[in-house]
Structures are given as C-alpha cells and as structure tokens.
Write a structure and sequence with these properties.
The longest helix is centred in the N-terminal third of the chain and has 23 residues, at 33-55. The strands form 8 sheets. The protein has a 6-stranded mixed β-sheet with strand order 21-19-16-23-24-27. It has a 5-stranded antiparallel β-sheet with strand order 6-7-4-10-11. It has a 4-stranded antiparallel β-sheet with strand order 1-3-8-5, with no helix packed on it. Strand 23 (368-373), helix 8 and strand 24 (393-397) form a beta-alpha-beta unit. It has helices at residues 14-29, 33-55, 238-244, 287-306, 332-344, 356-361, 363-366, 382-387; strands spanning 60-65, 69-71, 76-85, 91-99, 106-108, 113-117, 126-136, 140-150, 154-157, 160-166, 173-179, 185-188, 203-204, 215-226, 248-257, 260-264, 270-274, 281-285, 311-315, 317-318, 324-329, 352-353, 368-373, 393-397, 399-400, 403-404, 413-416. The chain has 8 helices and 27 strands. It folds into 4 domains: 14-55; 60-188, Immunoglobulins (Immunoglobulin-like, Sandwich); 203-257, no CATH class; 260-416, Rossmann fold, CATH 3.40.50. The protein starts with 13 loop residues before the first helix and ends in a 7-residue tail after the last strand. The protein is elongated, with a radius of gyration of 33 Å. Mean pLDDT is 82; it is low at 3-7, 203-213 and 401-423. The protein is 22% helix and 36% strand. The chain is α+β, with helices and mostly antiparallel strands.
Amino acid sequence: MRTRQNFSGSLVNPAGIAVLFVLVLIANYFQSYVVSSFLLFICFLFAVSFLWGRFALNRVKVQIRAENQSVFPGQRFPVSFSVTNDKMLPLIWIETLLQMPENSCVKPDETFDTNLYEDKKDQAPYLLSRRKFTWIMWHQQLQWQTHFEAVRRGVFFLQNISLSSGDGFGLTIREKLCRLTSPPAFVVYPRLIEVDAAPFLRNMHNAASGSRGYYEDVTLLKSNRDYQTGDSFKKINWRLLARQDQMQVNIYETILPRASFFILDAGSFQKRQIDPVTEKEVISSHETEFEDMLSLMGSLFLALKDQEMGCGLALPDVGEKKGELIPPALGDLQVNLLLSALAGIQYAGEPTFMNETEILSGRENWGQMYLCVRSLESCTCKRLLDNLDGACLTVITTRKEDEAVDAVHRKLWTQRLKGGEGA
C-alpha cells in the first residue's frame, strides 16, 4: 500500500525562502562569502522551484474522449486522453491520475500503474491508476489512446482526472483536479452463463400471429380451409381428404410466450455471523450467490428476448437507494435497461424494502412472475408468497433444501409453491 505524494519541501515556500535569504545576509555580514554564496544558490534554487511548481499546471487542460459503454466482463473498449499545455512555460513532467471505482468493475491497461493508496489513517484506501510523461513543450498537446477492460459487474462514472506536476528536482509537487464536462459512464453487465429458456416459455391462446416467437398449437384445431400452393403437407387434413375427396389444410390456434416479470429479493442474501475477535454480529451478504443470481437473471433476459418474450424487473430499495420497477416490454432497449439495472445494484447486507403492494396491484400486467431468492427460508417477500399461488408465481432459488446449487453446471432450481417439480 502506498501513500500519495502531494507536497513541497519544508523550505520550498515563501517562509522558508525568506529564512534562507536572512541567513544569506547574516553570512554576508560576517564576511563568510563561501557560506553566503552557497546559501544564495540554495535560496535561488528553492525560489525557482517554488515558482515553477506553482505555475506548472496553469492553463493546462485535459480531455477524455470516450463513448458511454455497456459491456460484459472481459470486454475491452478504447478511451482517448489529451493534455494541452497552453502557456509559454514547458512542463518538465506531468502525471495523470485516475481514481478507480471501489468495486474495481473496470481497469485501464498495462500502460497505467495501478496501486492501492491511502491519504490518511482514518480514510479507506482506494485504487489509483497513474501514468507519467516528460517534457510537454509550450502550446503543445499530448494525445494517447488506451483501453479499459471490464472486470466485474458494476457502474463507473469517469467524472474527473487529477494532474500532478512540478519542478525537475521534485522539490515542489502540485496537483490539480480537472472535472470533465461530459463524463462518460461505463456499465458492466453481469457475466453471462448458459441457461435453458424453455421452462420460461409460458403460452396463452388466441393471439395474433406474424412475428418471431409465435407458435401453432397442433392440439387445438381452429378451422379448415382449401389447400393453397405453398402450404405445408403436414397441415393437410388427410382424414377429410379420404372421406370427401377434398384437399383441406388445418388452421390451428396461434400461441405466444407470455411476459415474464422477475422480482429480486436482495434481502434474502443477507449474511449474519459472529466475529470471533470482537464477538459482535457482523452483517454482510452472500456475495457469490448474489452475483450468481444476477448472472442467471441477466442471461435469462437475453435468452427470452431471442424468443420474443417481454421481460420486466422489480428491484427493492437497498438502504437509501431507491429500487426500480420496470414493466415488461420487448426489444433491445428493454434488455439494455434491465441489464443496466442489474449492473447498478449493490448489496452488502443493508435493510431492503420491496413495494409488494405496487407489484400485487399490477400483477395482471406482469405476466408470469418469478421471485428470485437465496432460499425460501430467507425470503423477505412474505406478502407475495401469501397472496400469489403457483399458477402465477414461481420461486427461483440458488439453494434447494439448504443444499447449494452446483456452480459448475449452473443448475437452476425452481420450486412451485403448490406441488410439482418446478419449471
């Protein structure tokens, strides 16, 4: 762990320079010309260092060109930087510093030196990425492009960048915080896993056809019509052909998948344990299982979108952060909205609140609902369990009968509330 350096030498300031100058006068008064000359040189050096460091970052501008990015873990995206020295004084050296997010959802490439820093003992340490350049001449612009890599789920707003510079001897170091006018946002979605969307394709009848995701139920005959060129031979009513010598095709009922509405019970992932040292209760979260559930939900959103099924999402209030309720809809924009909501939720054991009244009042519009919990025993959405039966609510758990799901095979246990083996 390192401590950031943002300092000037103890004498490299007006007071210190004044003290040295007084010593020069005293030495000169006692006719110690060698000592006087040496102190005068040091006084001049400190004065130049102080003035150089003070004005080094004046009229220095920094810009970052990066589009808002929505990526999955492991993906890389470009970020362009430029530093402009718009004054007559050259920069002997300059260092760019980026404070990285606490959850380390993104990181710059190897051209940046990333370390853990702390300014004060009572301040939490943080990650800082830095890159140093030398000699930017007057009215010169330095440009370079780097790549950021998405590491894990999270959201990062690159709102500012710090610049450090000073004299060539390192006697004076100054830092300047530059706030970006258009800060880019980097959204890292939950990692994707293999899922089977077939159990989630609920059907309803008498729906219009004509787009992907609509099917014909061959068990429900609607009517017959005369054979037309291009009709499939599988639809020909062979019994009617044998009886009446008429070639007719069967028209079946069209069906389509219903909408799916996922409810995340974040409070069910709360973890309570006793600290063996302090013997006090420590509240945290089952982080691995929580991330696995988010990955499962995000993967299902993409899989169900390919089946033309609209998905919605309900997230609880976590601490002081308000939750979200996103009605089911179709399309890429809807999936991006759902994945972004999953990327932004953070849970470390805080109290949660789910607006179950709002969910129950609009249940006719949600379609099939799925309650995502760690286990039925730890479920905090008791009102949903009491007011909805297995016909419209399915519980998705990461555990079944207190037995952990095999994370290697990514099994999904679904338990219907009223009998059955699940979806």
